[in-house]
């Protein structure tokens, strides 16, 4: 988008400049956006629609972004009269403008019209996206939980069949369908959204409108340390975008609802002088790093309206008993490094739906649940520790709404009884299991997992002893409907691929330090749905064979620290769907064999020549 940037990146070659779209290309793009359910492209509408549409698309000047936005707006209009109203709205603002100013005016008018056309509940949801920095990849789960905490999604929309999260997903889908939000990464199912982005021009509109409506203010300073005193005392939300500095918020702010720190929180220390000055806060994120032990202020209990609390500490964190007064808390997200002290009061907060307490380390340690924690509302619970005081049966069975669960086991024998209980949780879709029993590595019985039919996402971490019977494999008991699987430092001696390739729904597979063997085999017709494969730290692997017909849908392959592998498998050349391959810290011989130097291809280049994007580090 900037010729100077491209020229400096490579001064030897002339930058490739994208040309504007032709009239036909512009019309076809508009049709794809305005009629998303039609497969007929530009043949999908009547003469009247086509004539009006081509007049509107002409005003876009061949700019793809303007056409996409216009298409998103027209997609919500079913009648010719509605299209005519959009045309009148846009065309009327161009009269009297010099030709060189018309493209910018069209763009701005389309953006404003798209915003004005939104149903009222979606307007604050869109403006709220302005608090993220430019080009920021926004987590869908975090965004929806923030919308709920802010009150943008009313509890009255919830029912027995539809949760507030479901409503939030529907809101986001509507913004995406209108081309106001861009999907960045899809979820592991391949159909849902994992992360999203906002176009820069649209973000500018969001920040401007949010400021006008006193919905949100962004504070950005360049000094190393600064105090923030809000000029406008009635502001409801502020987002602070520092880089590496300490921030103090001063004064009283009776209307303030949210303190947001979206940008690189690991480099921010945020201090509030007096919680009572912010008593209506609903959303708060705080971080401490330069202390050995963070005693979170007892005054945090004065924030009685708090719904979303995110705390991060690089060392030990001690939560106060007063946190039990936060009766409206909906989401509690905590990251710590060495240790954490959690008061019993946390587990008596009945409205809590999402508890994520995770250690910033290779392996988590988990926190101990308190007796009597039987919240029926809990949907996310990570990461609890199971040690000499196992979880009671009746406690687990009351978690009827649990969807995502993380457990850390101190001993292998504690695993099977818990897995048996998990088979009874009908909404459970995601599970993370860590085994810390390194001193007494014993056989891990995963048989109950095969009965967890609703499970689609699974993570197994820690040392796992192979099945004592050579004919069996402990991974035989993985859930049949698994879509995303992560195996982390399991250190098995049996090749896992023979079992994993039979998982018909598996789309994403991540293997790190999982196999100590020298040979790996992927059979024909194996991994029928696999889309992404990452293999890291398989230090002993010397030979990898892929038969023709294996992994027919694979689009992304990443290998890192598989440094004994001398060459890439022959079968890669048959995987014509591959779009991207990333190689990191691989053997020099492997890298040499796929290089092209002065037009001379390496002896294995033919195996990967069909892959559009190859990165070697």
TrEMBL record:
InterPro entries per UniProt: Apaf_helical (IPR042197), Disease_R_plants (IPR044974), LRR_dom_sf (IPR032675), LRR_R13L4/SHOC2-like (IPR055414), P-loop_NTPase (IPR027417), WH-like_DNA-bd_sf (IPR036388), WHD_DRP (IPR058922)
Record Gene3D superfamilies: Helical domain of apoptotic protease-activating factors, Ribonuclease Inhibitor, Winged helix-like DNA-binding domain superfamily/Winged helix DNA-binding domain
GO molecular function term, any single one: ADP binding
Recorded coiled-coil stretches: none
Keywords tagged on the record: Plant defense, Repeat
Single GO BP term: defense response to other organism
Disease resistance R13L4/SHOC-2-like LRR domain residues: 256-563
Chain ranges of the Disease resistance protein winged helix domain: 132-206
PANTHER family to which the protein is assigned, alphabetical: DISEASE RESISTANCE PROTEIN RP (PTHR23155), DISEASE RESISTANCE PROTEIN RPP13-RELATED (PTHR23155:SF1193)
Protein name: NB-ARC domain-containing protein
Naturally occurring in which organism (per UniProt): Gossypium lobatum
